[in-house]
Design goal:
85 residues, mainly alpha, 0% strand, globular
Length: 85
């Protein structure tokens, strides 16, 4: 969970989001703020836009999707993939 692989990063983000939501009694907005702060503290996510990554983590949680950490839209200054919605 604390390695540098894509799976370890995704597991970490999922766990932090779950703990933040539980600590905030299901308040998604406050949980997102806590997740943004946790992303900012973790050096593995330095190249990522913390707000975009936190929003994507929550979107994947609600939709049951798999988090793709290689999406350029999640990077600082990144743009969405061509033909993405």
């Amino acid at each position: 969970m604390f390695g540098d692989s894509q799976r370890d990063k995704a597991e970490y983000l999922s766990a932090v989001e779950r703990q933040a939501r539980n600590a905030r009694n299901g308040n998604w907005i406050e949980a997102k703020q806590e997740l943004i702060e946790a992303i900012g503290r973790d050096r593995r996510f330095d190249g990522f836009d913390a707000e975009a990554l936190a929003a994507r983590v929550q979107l994947c949680k609600t939709n049951g999707a798999i988090l793709d950490l290689e999406d350029p839209a999640l990077m600082k200054g990144g743009s969405p993939r061509p033909l993405s919605r």
